[in-house]
Amino acid sequence: MFINNKKINGKTFIISGISSGIGKEIARELIEKHGVKVYGIARNEQRILDFKQELKNKDNLLGYFLFDVSIEENWINLKKYFYEKDIKINGIINCAGILPKFSTFENTSVKDFRNIIDVNFYSCIYACEHILPILDKTTLQYVVNVASSASLVTFSGISGYASSKSALKSFTLCLASELDKKVNVTCICPGTTDTGIFRNQNATEKESRLIKKICSSPQKIAKKSIKAIIRGKKLKIVGYDAKLMNFFYKLAPNLTSKIISKILKKSGLSIFKQI
Fold first, then answer.
1. In a domain, 89, yes or no
2. In CATH, what number is assigned to the domain containing residue 106?
């Protein structure tokens, strides 16, 4: 199938979560391959400055803002900035997210749930609420939310994370149906990816190496995600593990969930000891 890559060339995007992982690699790909102007959002300034150095002579295409995406006021202030500066924005890609330690519901506090949902779900609601109205209406607009394979398949230890990503997937697909001809809305569901999101898991060095082997690279996820965005896909499942789990879960949801949970519990890995 022919893909018209020029559709996004030279556009301007806001991307959250650009200091590492999928967000960083999507930003890199858009800047280096498509000449896209990116306004990134993150909290770690040093990582962004390091990223700008990696971009070399294209570092001028990366601007950034430092704030917590889970606080609505920050999005309101961002909207004011672009409106007052009369900067034309063509799309927003929400990549920021957290993966808490694997733990059963009984060992997860209400405070933990709120934090997970605030970052993984409400941040995207705020982004859409405040950025959608200022997108450039003279051209095709883009809204992209990065969910997870956890929104497709359920298993032990991820009740908070799966809930937040399932909500995000449903919201994004509803938005896609409401804004069908006005805005290209895409939900990306990546499988296990070698990103900084695993930092909170306190994995041993040996476990980290094992996780790295079974993960897709963020570069690969980014490339496939951008293709899906250009094609106007509503839902894109990325990663062999995500596709495999989704296939079997559709055939036998209860059995698939039990098998995955059992494999994790019997793996002997410390990051799964609480499930």
1. yes
2. 3.40.50.720
Residue 236: inside a domain, yes or no? Answer: yes
**Cα(252)–Cα(61) distance, integer angstroms:** 47
Query: Over its length of 275 residues, how does the chain's per-residue pLDDT go in tens digits?
Result: 444 556 899 999 999 999 999 999 999 999 999 999 999 999 999 999 999 999 999 999 999 999 999 999 999 999 999 999 999 999 999 999 999 888 999 999 999 999 999 999 999 999 999 999 999 999 999 999 999 999 999 899 999 999 999 999 999 999 999 997 889 999 999 998 987 656 556 667 776 776 777 788 999 999 999 999 999 999 999 999 999 999 999 999 999 999 999 888 887 777 777 77
Threshold 0.85, pTM exceeds: yes
Domain that holds residue 147: 7-272
Q: Name the residue among 125, 133, 120, 95 with its Cα closest to residue 14.
A: 95
